[in-house]
Amino acid sequence: MKRVSIGVSLILAVIAAAGLYSSRAQVASSVQAHPPSNVAPPTNPLKVALLKWFPAYKSTAFPVGKNPLGLAFDGANMWVANQDGNSVTKLRATDGENLGTFPVQAGPTGIVFDGANIWTVNSYGNNVSKLRASDGKTLGTFNVGNDPLFAAFDGENIWVTNQSGSVSKLRASDGKTMGTFADAAGPKGITFDGTYMWVSNFNGTVTRFKLDGTPSGTFAVGVGPVFMAFDGANMWVVNVGDQTVTKLRASDGKNLGTFPTTNSGYGIAFDGANIWVAGVPDIVELRPSDGKLIFWTRLPYGGGEGMAFDGANIWVANYPDNSVNKL
Fold this sequence. Notes:
Structural class: mainly beta
Number of strands: 29
């Protein structure tokens, strides 16, 4: 009986301590979590392993360059394009330590990793920069179209949207232009699904391109689409102009639904379980099966832009605060 009594007492003590720790953590947190009632928590196993299966965990901010926008993960580090700092910052994903800030050409917005190198889309210079991921050394600068914005990698080539009305395709090995493809609808975001390159157009459509540059369908979405994310079967499109996201079946472009968010969304990421949308001022999490809002939080800076997932955590670029948040 004595051992049983001691065991029960220990269990009660652990529960009490856990409750005290949880309450203190929530007070100390820089993020206010607001999960809707009667909703199951996220099921990403990596979050469970990191003791982050519950929504009210702490977010940490790390300073970067001026006006961060695009984010890219290289397998170990998060890279940040600082649009008005004309630079990229490399942060170690595990703890956010700054591993270097490297100069690029004017106005970097989009940023993408090709397996060995980081590419930045320099919106003010009409070119892209290629940096070696290991040390940030610039390996080349290559011209694209006018007013470029974002980029994606197809396994061999870098694709860049030019808001002037085209999409550029560059060979990743040497930056050679492999094609420039017309898109008069105002190309913005770009995402690869393993088969097709998807381009969001500011006229409220998304165009799907074959890898030879041939259009393979244009699909209506919401107002002012920009960033997109692929969940393994569907393409999710953030519609900045009407505070919604649209879900398109990647195989045929069929519209599977348009779902409201709580904000003017911008960045988007898939964490292996759910869809996250960054905007002004909220960060929201949606269930992919039906687009239902399952969690939202408000960062103190109110200016979420680019978003990326590092295999365990969501990262958000805070454009007006010159910082990034790791959730």
